[in-house]
Amino acid sequence: MKFIDEYRSEADTRKFVQAIQKTVTRPWTLMEICGGQTHTIIKFGIDRLLPEEITLVHGPGCPVCVTPLELIDKALAIARRPEVIFTSFGDMLRVPGSETDLLSVKAQGGDVRMVYSPLDAVKLAQKHPDREVVFFAVGFETTAPANAMAVWQARQMGLKNFSILCSHVLVPPAMEAILGSPHNLVQGFLAAGHVCAVMGYWEYEPIVEKYRVPIVVTGFEPLDLLQGIYMTVKALEEGRAELENQYVRAVTREGNVPAQKLVKQVFQVCDRQWRGIGLIPNSGYCLRPEFAEFDAAQRFEVTGITAEESPVCIAGEIMQGLKKPHQCPVFGTECTPEHPVGAPMVSAEGACAAYYQYGRK
Question: Where residue 222 sits, what CATH number does that domain have?
Fold first, then answer.
C-alpha cells in the first residue's frame, strides 16, 4: 500500500504539525472546500492536532449537500413515472426531498437504479428503447466531463429516450460568495484537488487578487492536508496573498484541457440555487440550447416545482463556515444518518455525516 501509506506517515505528520506550531503566531480561520477533505480531517483528527490558533471550517464542497431541495422533488416526480428508469449515483438515493427520498420511491415500485457512471445510463437507454432513461447529473466540475460525454454520446447514437436532470455547480463562484459575505470568517482556502485536476487552478487567480486571500490547491490524504494547512498559514503569517499548488502529483495550472473543451461543448454557465445558501449567479452548468432535448426537467415538465428548506436545518451556515455541525439543534437527535433532516447528514461527503460517524457530538 505504498502510495497510500506514504501519505499517512506518523513521523511525517509530526514534522508538519511541529512546523505549523512554529509558524503560527495569531488566530487564523481556514476553509477546506471539499467534503472528501472534511472527512479526512475529522476521521484522522487533523483538526485536533493543530494549534488552537487555527480553526478549520467546512465549505460547500459536497455536491449532494448543495443540490437544492426543489431539484430533489423534481427528481422524485420524474422517478415516480411508470415509463421512466431513473438512474443516479448511490449517494443521492437517500437525500431527503420535501416528503421522501429516491430509495423510498424505489421501495414503492419506482424503477430507480444506482449506476457507477452516466455512460451506464446511456447503455440502459440503448437496451430499453421503450423506456425513458434519466440520469441525475449532480456534481462539481469533477464529474462534468463524464456527464457531458454521456449527453454527447447519446446525441451521436441518436438516442431519443435519454436525458439528464442537471444540477452541476462550480467552485470559484461559491468561494466568491463566501468571501463577499459581510459575515465571512474565512482567511484562507484549501482548494479541492480533484476539481483542479480537471479545471486547473488558473480560475482562482482573480479571486486571490480581488480578495487578497491565500489559496492552496490541496490533496486528500492526511499529509496532503497538513502540508496545505502549513502552506496557507505560512502565507498568512508572511502577509502573502498567493495561489499555490500542494497537489503537484495530480494538478497543473492548465488542468485537463480536452475535458474542459468537452464540457464547454455540451454545457454553458448559468445561475444556480444552492441548498441552504440560495442563488449564486453564474455558479452552475446547464445544457446548451443545441442539447436542450436532453434536459429532463423540460422533457417531463417539472420546472414549476418549488420547495422550502427545513427551518431547523442549519446546513447553509455550516457550508459557509459560520457554524459547525454539532451546533445544529437537531444534530444527532432528530437528524441522524437513518433519518436525515438535511443532506449533509446523509451524503458520504457531508460535514454532518463526518461529525456523526467519527463521534464529534
Answer: 3.40.50.11740
Give the span between the Cα atoms of 197 and 194, in whole angstroms. Answer: 5
Are 323 and 11 in contact by the 8 Å Cβ rule? The answer is: no
Q: Which amino acid is at 328?
A: C
pLDDT reading at 227 higher than 60: yes
What is the DSSP-derived secondary structure letter of residue 322?
S
Residue 3 pLDDT greater than 70, yes or no: no
Q: DSSP class of residue 284?
A: E
Asked whether residue 41 is assigned to any structural domain, the reply reads yes
Task: Look at residue 1 and tell me whether its pLDDT is greater than 60.
Answer: no
* CB count in 10 Å sphere of residue 158: 6
Strand partners, 112: 86
Question: Which pTM value belongs to this model?
Answer: 0.93
> Which CA distances in Å does 286 have to 22, 138, 252?
47, 11, 26
Does residue 189 belong to any structural domain of this protein? Answer: yes
Asked if residue 188 is part of any domain, the answer here is yes
Within 10 angstroms of residue 159's Cβ, the number of other Cβ atoms is 17
Quick one: pLDDT at residue 291? Answer: 97
- How many separate domains does the chain show? 1
Q: Residue 203 pLDDT > 90, yes or no?
A: yes
Q: What is the mean pLDDT of the chain?
A: 94
Residue 361 located in a structural domain? no
What is residue 20's three-state secondary structure?
helix
Residue span of the structural domain in which 206 resides:
1-356
What phi, psi does 112 have (nearest 5°)? -110, 125
CB-CB neighbours of 100 under 10 Å: 15
Listed in order, strand segments (DSSP E) in 130-222 are: 132-139, 162-169, 188-192, 215-218
Q: Residue 99 and residue 76: Cα distance in Å, rounded?
A: 10
pLDDT digits (tens, 9 = 90+) for 292-347: 999 999 999 898 888 888 889 999 999 999 999 999 999 999 999 988 888 899 88
Instruction: Report which DSSP code applies to 359.
Output: T
